[in-house]
Amino acid sequence: VSHDAVFPHAGSSLEPPEPAMEPPAAAAPDELPPGAKPEQGGRELFGYVGIEAVLDQMKIKTMKTGFEFNIMVVGQCGLGKSTMVNTLFKSKVSRKATQAGREERIPKTVQLHSVTHVIEEKGVKMKLTVTDTPGFGDQINNENCWDPIIKYINEQYERYLREEILITRKRKIPDTRVHSCVYFVPPTGHWLRPLDLEFMRRLSKIVNVVPVIAKADTLTLEERAEFKQRIQQDLKAHAISVYPQEDFDEDPDDRALNDRIREKIPFAVVGADQEHQVNGKRVLGRKTKWGIIEVENPAHCEFPLLRDLLIRSHLQDLKDITHNVHYESYRVRRLNESNR
């Protein structure tokens, strides 16, 4: 006896089944019922579904796992690189190369020092890695002084690539790739030096380069504006594309925002890690004979613009471009070499 004879399917009957009704003919894709309008954008829902809750899920997950951000500072000794990093994150995340009471010695070759900290703000954890480059541009002959920096950046890409191509990969690959390289231009008031042009020309192809004018308080407002204009002319004449790059602007709103940022680049910044009393408020600033330079005051310097670019508005974009553009170019090149 068959199984179906003993346990007939639900809805079955011993009586002969009625002939099935044919479904109504579907309308042609190009034809619409009378009075109907073609859909534009998303489909309107009849009630609350909860799709927007995915944003809360992403936020909770990010707060639990945290995220990584790696920044490199490049420039000559004495331009305030460590102070600027400490000012950015309002903590002692970067230490000076020498201690008080010791004679400062200029390294004979470019050395790279990385310091990693976990900083937390309102429940959000960030693993911050700061890479300093003592010895860059401090020699009489600075030929090829950018080679150790390029080698270090490519080594981080190679480390990530080796983890990515494993058969059994880690659930979360440690990300040591440099997401942003802040290049400190000396406040000479003239044109860019050949060293500055050559460094940015080479590094802009493999990392996001953000140029800044260091110690901008040594220039008057007129000198600062003229110096920025000359730097912009130099970058354009030598086809150097610094961050944010025009080629990667896809959204019109992003393009409009980045255009306003590109007009201000390079940012004229002043760093300070000490607080002073100004009008009854504690502010970060640098005390001089003429008064206090407030680093977070847009009327005094453009440090707030740099902080907004690196942290508040473009941090995720810096990571996305690093992964989707610079690392992808390195990955394709390495895999092509392996195939050959």
TrEMBL record:
UniProt cross-references to InterPro entries, sorted A to Z: G_SEPTIN_dom (IPR030379), P-loop_NTPase (IPR027417), Septin (IPR016491)
CDD domains, per the entry: CDC_Septin
Pfam family membership, one: Septin
Keyword list, A-Z: Cell cycle, Cell division, Cytoplasm, Cytoskeleton, GTP-binding, Nucleotide-binding
Record GO terms (molecular function): GTP binding
Positions of region (Disordered): 1-41
Residue ranges constituting the Septin-type G domain according to the UniProt record: 65-337
Main location, first listed in the record: cytoplasm
Gene Ontology terms describing biological process: cell division
Compartment(s): Cytoplasm, Cytoskeleton
GO cellular component, as recorded: cytoskeleton
Keyword Iron-sulfur: no
Keyword GTP-binding applies: yes
PANTHER family referenced in this protein's UniProt entry, alphabetically: SEPTIN
The family this protein is said to belong to: Belongs to the TRAFAC class TrmE-Era-EngA-EngB-Septin-like GTPase superfamily. Septin GTPase family.
Protein name: SEP12 protein
Highest classification ranks of the organism: Eukaryota, Metazoa, Chordata, Craniata, Vertebrata
